[in-house]
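By convention, each integer encodes one residue's backbone shape. The lines below illustrate.
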Amino acid sequence: MPNPLQGARFVLAAHRISQLPADLGAEVAFAGRSNAGKSSALNALTGHKGLARTSKTPGRTQQMVAFALPPLAQGEGQAPLEVRLIDLPGYGYAKVPEDLRAHWKQEIDAYLHRRRSLRGVVLIADIRHPLKDFDRMMLDFCFATGLPCHLLLTKADKLSRNQAAQALAAMRKSFPDGLHATAQVFSSPAATGVDEARERVVELLRTPRE
């Protein structure tokens, strides 16, 4: 099937939210711990192996990185929708100075609260481990603000199909009632769940902001 996220291109890397592209159109943010496979997931979803830098040293994404997508067609008589993906700094693992970690936390918090074009969050988490404090914090924020969230449980190729299914079921049961969240198993190298995740990202981009 055609890839609706094909044609993604790097726009800029921002140290502060004021440096991001104009707050127009729609965007989906990708968040997760530095060793959860966020860059690999972005590359798999866009079909662009070199779009987001991957590294054996977690924590290489140290800014908010904006990627433009081809405009999304809307209804008859409506102009195409300007859309983007935003790669948020990996969190919690990188060996970086404490003041930089504090800066990331402040800017991510400001981005999530102020960015009007933000339509949803794709949260990346390793399926083999329980959710960490940062992951829970992101889910709590989405719950409190009504922001849709899609959880990619990455590295599913490291588990059997039955183990992965059990982990997914347990994760869904742990969601609080009223949380606008969906979840799926995912593996970049095995291409598991890639089409499903692409469809979900497009759905988020098309979701009107309340």
Q: What stands out?
A: Residues 89 and 124 are 12 Å apart (CA to CA). The radius of gyration is 16 Å. Strands lie at 9-14, 26-32, 64-72, 81-87, 118-126, 149-154, 181-185. The chain is about 30% helix and 25% strand.
